[in-house]
Amino acid sequence: MNILLIYFTGTFNTRFITEMVRNEFIKYGHSVEMVEVNYKTESINTDNYDLIGLGYPIYAFNSPLPFNRFLKTKVKFKKGQNYFIYKNSGETLGLNNSSSRIIKRRMKHQKLNLTGEYHFVMPYNIHFPFDENFIKEMIEKDHKLCELMVYNLCNGIYRTIKSNIFYDFLSFCISIQKIGGPINSFFYRIDENKCIKCYKCIDQCPSGNIYEKKGKIVFHHRCDMCMRCSFYCPSDAIKIGFLQNWKVNHYYHLPSLEQTSADRKPYITSESKGFYKCFIKYFAQIDSDYSKLLKVKEERAKNGN
């Protein structure tokens, strides 16, 4: 198959997952292209692709506005085309189940066929930083889920994530990014005593919201709250308004953690409590499904398939 992965990424978690997905498809002999969405991304025509993957980070239990806008205005889909969704967040709360509702509705209107939806977990870029051992475990589960997802997609096995009216309504009410980013950006500030004028925030902003004026770094008011600028600022010089107390200024070194994830004690156990309790069932389900997949592959190998 010719596969196109269209994705939006804030602090590059979704890019990390997308590269994982691409590599897994390549193992099956498929051709894969990746398109990262930002304010400079050109329009796309998907006529030459057999399968479309749509990837995004979940923002306040919703798909990101710039991603929604891009799919609506800059992608020409082919009627009857197959697509799947792969999304990620820092927790497994049920409200995340409804985050794709806008995308699904738009794709249904354009007569596309949903072939699967999958939810990956990645470390927070706001609220609080994750422990490295926890991230290693996340990456292990993500690799298993990725292998499951690609196997299912390549073998016509449909799997989706069920939502309900209650989740859909709450998700709609919480979608503060529609006004939250532009309003909060009025309160963004640069600490001139810390700023080293590296201009990473300007160069990397996916919405082109940051610029230099009279030697100072200033903000427009079209912020999508992806947190890339404050997350990666090397001198922790960016103050993010109302969200300052939740700011995470942290580089996780995901490729390095990916390479050192073996031989360690489980971070999530049956005794995990509080915030971490939601991962118990989620991780267990991935492990169970993955064990079943390995058995299926073993049987197929014995039968020469």
Considering the chains and any ligands shown, give keywords for the structure.
single chain; 305 residues; alpha/beta; five-stranded parallel beta sheet; 38% helix; 18% strand; globular
Brief synopsis:
By secondary structure, this protein is of the alpha/beta class.
Detailed description of the structure:
This protein is an alpha/beta fold and 305 residues long. The protein has 10 helices and 11 strands. The strands form 4 sheets. It has a 5-stranded parallel β-sheet, sandwiched between helices. It starts with a strand and ends with a helix.
Helix content: 25-40%
How are the strands of the largest sheet arranged? 2-1-4-6-7
Instruction: Give a short account of the largest sheet.
Output: 5 strands, parallel
Q: Rg to the nearest angstrom?
A: 20 Å
Continuous helix count: 10
Low-pLDDT sequence parts: none
How would you classify the helix and strand content by structural class?
alpha/beta
Count of distinct strands = 11
**What best-fitting shape do the alpha-carbon axes yield?**
globular
Order of helices and strands: EHEEEHEEHEHHHEHEEHEHH
* Overall pLDDT score: 93
- What percent of residues are in strands? 15-25%
Distance between the termini: 19 Å
List the helices and strands and how they pair.
Layout: E1 2-7, H1 13-27, E2 31-36, E3 44-45, E4 51-57, H2 65-73, E5 75-76, E6 82-89, H3 101-109, E7 113-121, H4 132-154, H5 165-174, H6 177-184, E8 188-190, H7 200-204, E9 210-213, E10 216-219, H8 228-232, E11 238-240, H9 254-259, H10 278-302
Parallel strand pairs: 1-2, 1-4, 3-5, 4-6, 6-7
Antiparallel strand pairs: 8-11, 9-10
